[in-house]
Amino acid sequence: xxxxxxxxxxxxxxxxxxxxxxxxxxxxxxxxxxxxxxxxxxxxxxxxxxxxxxxxxxxxxxxxxxxxxxxxxxxxxxxxxxxxxxxxxxxxxxxxxxxxxxxxxxxxxxxxxxxxxxxxxxxxxxxxxxxxxxxxxxxxxxxxxxxxxxxxxxxxxxxxxxxxxxxxxxxxxxxxxxxxxxxxxxxxxxxxxxxxxxxxxxxxxxxxxxxxxxxxxxxxxxxxxxxxxxxxxxxxxxxxxxxxxxxxxxxxxxxxxxxxxxxxxxxxxxxxxxxxxxxxxxxxxxxxxxxxxxxx
Amino acid sequence: xxxxxxxxxxxxxxxxxxxxxxxxxxxxxxxxxxxxxxxxxxxxxxxxxxxxxxxxxxxxxxxxxxxxxxxxxxxxxxxxxxxxxxxxxxxxxxxxxxxxxxxxxxxxxxxxxxxxxxxxxxxxxxxxxxxxxxxxxxxxxxxxxxxxxxxxxxxxxxxxxxxxxxxxxxxxxxxxxxxxxxxxxxxxxxxxxxxxxxxxxxxxxxxxxxxxxxxxxxxxxxxxxxxxxxxxxxxxxxxxxxxxxxxxxxxxxxxxxxxxxxxxxxxxxxxxxxxxxxxxxxxxxxxxxxxxxxxxxxxxxxxxxxxxxxxxxxxxxxx
Lengths: 296, 319
Prior knowledge:
Chain A is mainly α and about 300 residues long. Helix content of chain A is about 70%, strand content about 5%.
């Protein structure tokens, strides 16, 4: 018998991790054309923040996640102000090309900085919320369930923020036409900083969840980066909605591969999907550059 | 950007300078008779060659080849397996190895270079990582992380032949690359890098030129990979890891991208620093990271811009 329910549940939970980091990558790319190589490392940093908030400060789980989000928002905003703004001044047309290398440098600094500061030990907590729940006859731990809902909840919140608030509209406007936005009295620098802050928050909270279920360690960001880029390439660069859907798609494919193929293959499965997507629909499943007539 | 093109060495001073440099690099090692010096020089020239191959895409068509190590490793393992399993001399095995690296590069170029350069960067990174998984998993052929023992280029322990070999490879690489970038191809590469839309507008076949540039860079990545394999005599899947790519990228950027020769001063400075301050090697990645951030923010011209500023008036007075 095919364990359909187990596969679906596993892939939902796995997908919940991919959502936040890949959404942060898609948002950075879609709004301000930053090809970021450091989102995974921001997640790693978020994992450490959450770990210390839980253990050293002894906060309760919800509060710890809120603190992680806040701290990582500040980290993202600070990076924008101190590193990316000077780069933007000198980059011109090479902005995206340059951000890739700058984020790589930052990624190396974060990885090795974490190694120097915290050592290479795996740090994690046993659980945030004890116990398990039965879902349609299949048992699943409360942690996983709550994190799944929190991830989706954060994404809904992000969507509402971008859609309905004044700042959210300004962020989308910068994504559409950066040159015209200052004419309407929007401070572009502030929008850049806000976007970086939000992506720091998303990646950081994603890392906190990962830390809670597994562990965090200095090189955790490498895998997270790889997954986030896989998702974003499948979805189409810069498409946040597509990234959410494709997080679950990739998670589903990987889960199936885990069930039916030898170990090691789940990692290859993602790359094969990317090859197929690049061959047949190079702008990604949800690519915004080539639109079908019914998507307008 | 445009100012860092190295002209055809019609300028006499420049030609003399290059010939003098070459003469020194040929004559000094046998006179010094110092194996340690030789190994350092080999490392320097090898990384200068790797940086130049990286520079062809990063500096001209503005594509960061983030899977550089994958092409390096593909050629290294091909030649190594041919030598260890079939006893084929590396001097012959280098050709199939280059073919593999080139085909691998052409495949990635075909898939991604119709699109924005960032696709090529991300996708070649995936390929390199996948290759690393495969190399680690196929223990029967590659011996995985135990390491594959590779026959060396030369029998005996003398280091001088290796030095001359890598020097010859580097000189050939630079001659070919300069020949390419000084002709119409280089012109097309530069336009595409500066402004892709403008290049399309004037009828440049952007995809073709970009794919060609990328594939040639992969070929030379492969050449350096083959040298690496038969010089160090041991290969692990880590040659396909980000570590190699990061070093190539850092040396290329610190040297000054878009010059091809900039990697040489960068390799000299960096390798010397790591040799003199041995304990620093442990922190090499953090140093590369910091250097990348500094170069990106404050010195995008890299070391080459210093040379251009101070030596160009002497070497190329006609400008």
